[in-house]
TrEMBL record:
This is PINc/VapC family ATPase. Residues 531-542 have a biased composition (Gly residues). The keyword RNA-binding applies. Residues 259-448 form the AAA+ ATPase domain. Keywords: RNA-binding. NCBIfam families: PRK13764.1. In the N-terminal section; belongs to the PINc/VapC protein family. The lineage of its organism: Archaea, Methanobacteriati, Methanobacteriota, Stenosarchaea group, Halobacteria. GO terms for molecular function: RNA binding.
Amino acid sequence: MNVVPDTSAVIDGRVSERVESGAYEGATITVPEAVVGELEWQANEGHDTGWEGIEELQRLVDLAESSTITVEYHGKRPDAGQKRSADEGEIDAIVRDVAAELGATLLTSDVVQAEVSRAKGLDVEYVEPRGRDAEGLQIESFFDETTMSVHLRAGAKPRAKRGAIGDMHYEVIRDEVTTEAEMKEFAHDIAETARASPDGFVELDEPGMTIVQYRSYRIAVARPPFADGFEITAVRPIVKTDLEDYEFAEDLKERLLERQRGVLIAGAPGAGKSTFAQAVAEFLASHDNAVKTMEKPRDLQVGSDITQYTALGGDMAKTADSLLLVRPDYTIYDEVRKTDDFEVFADMRLAGVGMVGVVHATRAIDALQRLVGRVELGMIPQVVDTVVYIEAGRVDTVYDVTTEVKVPEGLTAEDLARPVIQISDFETGDPAFEIYTFNRQVVTVPLDGDESSETGVSRLARKEVEREIRSIARGHVEVELKGQNEAVVYVEEDDISYVIGKGGGRISDVEDRLGIDIDVRTLDERPSSGGSNGGGGGGSGGATDREGTVVTPEVTSRHVVVDAADAADVGQTVEVRADGEYLFTATVGRGGEIQVSRGSAIADELEHALDHKQRITVVSA
């Protein structure tokens, strides 16, 4: 009897199993070199299946020495292209050719291979893929009811995160270190259980990293060279909530059901964002909404009536295109991190789909600022109209996001009216922030009502007055605000008449442009203290107790470019300073850069600072 096993039978250990049962007494086991090549390639790529197959071949050699079977190898090794095309049947075809050439029985655990081989007239022995009753995972013994995640690493003591949401502790859970052999056993058990159980699947299988979803567990198995050691991390939610469990539940329900919304759920890692997103998803699904999810990996614990999608072909944009054909009422996007994610989120929202996105942020306003620079400013309220900030498992803050053409708070004059994004407290309706374009820069201004210190608007207004006067005056300039609508400008005595202009025409033009009444005085008339709001060269305004990140702007033919990638994330609002003195506020654009058009007052000021070798820093606003 001559038996030719294919790769599936070798990996599953079905050859040695049948030899040991006596079914292949006296048989010749002919292993195609194509199978050996495929197993070697899988092992080199870091896949457990390759190692399992190689171990099976070693068992066959041992069995040949202790029993009546003979083990032989036959055929040619597959080339690189054939190994890469294994999923398309290239290796299976080579195995069939070997079986046909030898007149042997083909042993397989692959139902497609079995049916194709029978269609070609081969003698086929099909055995069910190896599996077991998947009652649970070995690593489940490390979990108790308070365990959110278990962290295993070869050569280290097992650890776990345990406690309540918002009060987690990373602690040792066993005194004995985890051995390499234990890690391999755990990894094999995880992979086999995922394959055998209808409640499990392999989410990602790349060289050095395998991610498995089994029931409520998301398990990442990392190996060298991707990781510097063999590591297994298993995570599960420790609570499952309903929307009724949260503050503002009734108002949020009404808001979500009123019409399709754009919602960002924000919070720090471990704050309970995904748990809240799951509660929102199940609430929406229970109220006549078709709900889908976009996740990579898929780990939201939602009901069976909610379909969970991952990245199609590794690209969430393709997933979005497919979902637009499905036309869900709401889609839960977990998590929105990169620029591509925000663009996909915005595209689906503007197509009329209700979107709920999960975002990492340490403040509620930070979640919204992630859209700045990624979505056209005027479109932001159409993309996101609600921000929910989660802290320690509870709803901490809810913002309502709208847009209005108005004069921003703290500025005056109707000609300063512009589109303003208003972020208001959902509970009280009180405005909390405004986002708008000020002197070609997008600014986020808190509306905290604190009159005791210079507000963001005041600082911007002061610097804008300063720039305008500097473009006229030839000497030193300082500015002091006197409330929201008035400013005092101090200039050199020789510049007084030049700044005011004939009949006051020049200063009137500046007042009209800025909507601020300006009183022009000489530097000798300024308060002896120099004024805490003083600007210009040598003034003390804008000083800060934060050093910031030192940057070296690049001057091109059209722009002054500030590389702020090391100082802030894309979309974050920052201040640019020279020798600790405030220059301007800006939003970090794509690529982590701030671009200022040359010829503008800001660019002139920045170039002046560079010419005088001042220290340029970027500070989070």
